Amino acid sequence: MAMAVATLFLAPWLWIVATPVSLLVSQHEFIGYRYFTSLSVLSGETRHIDIVQGVPMGILQHVIVAVLTRVLDRPSTDISTLEAFAQASLALAYLPGAGILAAVWLAPRFSLPDRFLITLVALAPWFAWPPAPLLLAPDYWPFELPYSLASTAWAVSILRAHPAPRPLGVGGTILAGAWIALGATLKVSAAAIGALPLVVHLSLSTERWSRQIHRALTAGAAALAGSIVIVWVYFLGDWKMTARAVLTFVRFIREPGGIDFTSLSQTLADPSTSFLRWSLLATALAGLVTVTGRPVPGRMRGRLLIGGFVVLSLVGHVITLDKRPSSTTAMDFALYGLFVIPVIAAISRTGQRDARFLLCLTPLLVLSVTGRYWDFSAKYPVEAYASARDVIREVQAYVRDSGRPAVLFAPDAHHLGQVIEQFVLIQGRLGRTPLAPGSLRERVLPRSELLGGSVDELVRLQDRIAQGWLIIWAHQDPWAPTEDAFPALRHLLDDPRATVRFWDHRAISDRTRIYVGLLRERDGHRTDPTSIR
Fold first, then answer.
1. How far is CA 435 from CA 431, 445, 447, in A?
2. Contact present, 302 and 203 (Cβ < 8 Å)
3. β-strand 498-505 against 470-476: which pairing, if any?
4. Which of 517, 296, 266 minimizes the C-alpha distance to 408?
């Protein structure tokens, strides 16, 4: 069973490794941001970096980037390098999770219902939720799974300990605080699940209240100090950038803002967040079984304290979702709701071998079967991803072989084609940095420029066209053609001296068309369209 559940947990990653799945297009934003942020830190260019989450994972990614670019000496903008970075990031997220699940089945302390509950809630995001591309992103979401899984297993193992665990010493308190710091710097809301083992341990302790409060405060101080140390390590010992990152994080907490939704009600009701509603239904059913079950004597104080913490944490997630209405916050909420179910079962009044809690996951089983969400390969367009990668590789080769400087024209997010220039200048944030001699931008993508839709930038775009620069832009369906809104591009397309090529791919929107055009003074009009892919 240990081998079986570990394999099931690894199945998505193994499927990606075994099939021609390209993460380049579907995860372009996260690959570009995380890869080039790590490259910037390793190069000592950090002034443009704003990071508020995913810090521990970012430290691991520094190692990945260093191995790829310095040890293996692979080109920084090569597509295979970027995809290897994404694959290695996912491996570092899923392999520990598989190991934790296997340990749950091998450790004698857990009851059989415990093992099944922990396994099922760990597998639910992959096999019961609708398509969740964020779980394939080389960002903090895949790392939330093993962190939540480890926190839940730790908390349940404390509850199943016989005799009751000994009071926490100084070392154990600091360790618990460091674990909370790891979650808080991964994603601030993950601190709630990370604090569960500490809360469980203190709730079962027979020490005086004053002693327990002292230990809780010590753990809190250790969590704060540990968070600062983790950020300091991320910036390779740069205290100035560490202080700047802490201030950025504080501002983010005060005013996080929404991303893809505008209100709590819209987030909860949107069809794309159905996974949250079904996951919280499972959590509510677990709470209902706990409240209505047959009481078993003992540990009443612990049940009240742990149950109260779980309820307050759920309320805190609701408040967080209200302050930051987004699908990413909804995913964090859903993960917490799932992973507290084994803890709720372990503190239940119905006894440790009550298997009725397995029935609480019935809503997720119904969701998985009716939506065919258990079929992982059917949820992701493998062929489209692979063909889109081939298109981007062709565009990159065409631009490189031309030997000309290039402009990436990106007036807004609806005019992006996932070309390499976009990875570097937009997702990688290097477009914010000056193109100075010896700079990372000059080494990675020399003779390039990012222009938007402001008046000054449009004037500069016309100048670059006249100077014979390559102009790269894109159009995504169902939006109006980019050239219809910007006369400079229309003039380039209509100019008899121009050479314009385009490539199509279908991985992100209904269709994305990438244009590369340049003005040749002595050549005739040549439009060289490629076939639609």
1. 9, 9, 8
2. yes
3. unpaired
4. 517
Angstrom distances, CA of residue 501 to CA of 134, 449, 474, 514: 33, 19, 11, 8
Strand order in the sheet with 526-529: 448-451, 406-409, 470-476, 512-519, 498-505, 526-529
DSSP 255-273: ----SS-SSHHHHHHSGGG
Query: d(Cα 328, Cα 257) in Å, to the nearest integer?
Result: 12
Cis peptide before 163 (omega within 30 of 0): yes
- What is the spatial distance between Cα 73 and Cα 87, in angstroms, rounded to a whole number? 18
For 5-52, what is each residue's pLDDT tens digit?
999 999 888 887 887 677 888 888 899 999 999 999 999 998 888 887
Distance, in Å, from the CA atom of 231 to the CA atom of 234, rounded to the nearest integer, reads 5
Amino acid at 236: L
Q: What is the pTM (predicted TM-score) of this model? A: 0.90
In angstroms, the Cα distances linking 25 to 330, 419, 533 are 23, 9, 14
Nearest residue to 471 via CA among 496, 445, 448? 448
The conformational region for residue 299 under phi > 0 = left, psi -120 to 50 = alpha, else beta, is left
